[in-house]
Amino acid sequence: MSGISKKHWIAFLILFLYDVITLVFSLVRNSYIVGYTISILNILLCLWLIHSYLREPLVEYGLHFKKIHIQIISGILLAVFIDYLLLQNSMNITSGIFYIKRYVEKLISDPVNIFYFFNPLIYAISEECVYRGFLLSFFQRIFNNPILSISLSAVLFGVSHYPSFHNIDQVVFAFIFGFICGYLRLKEPEKFTLFSLSLAHFLHNAVLQNILYA
Question: With the C-alpha atoms ordered 91, 82, 73, 32, is the resulting torsion angle positive or negative?
Fold first, then answer.
């Protein structure tokens, strides 16, 4: 990966300003439509900055679809591992099966609930594009130090959750989640891409939102 340039700093500032402005706007006008629109535009902006403005291959930012089956399996296993770490003290296998069974019955009784199951997907893709995609690669270009780059992107990811949840525990967990994902993206780039990390992120959020807190 080559060094930093003026264009990289401009791209960073554009993305940073967009996220700050949309964060303030979403706090004022909080709704599903606003959230979806902001997230979709965030993904498109991130991809445009990398592909069209910086003219760099997306693979350098962790996005490719080689061995897609391996990526899918890796994403699912990562989600299981993270949820196990989070819930091991509050849920056993029996209660876990109970929550899953209850949610499946809920889906069958009202298919509209399928929409709510996939609700976290667009947010997961958006956050992975920004924090494990652009920002992680941006910091790595500056410092050429994987642990520092992973830590910085994880800190920003954690802090970004505070305005929505106002919960320090959520910030700490988001930091740990971000650090694990960032480490895997740099350590195993063939298995843990933005695709597999988005899948893991989505499944984790779906479990919390639709099963545990349903």
Answer: positive
Burial of 151 (0-12, 13-18, 19+ CB in 10 A): middle
Is the entire prediction scored with pTM above 0.90? Answer: no
CA distances to 30, 33, 124, 202 from 75, in Å: 30, 27, 12, 9
Cα 55 from Cα 48, distance rounded (Å): 9
Tell which residue, 8, 1, 2, 5, has the closest CA to residue 134. 8
- Give per-10-residue mean pLDDT for the chain (214 aa): 87 94 78 84 96 96 95 95 76 66 72 71 94 97 96 95 83 94 96 97 82 56
What tokens does 56 get?
């760099």
Domain range list for the chain: 6-212
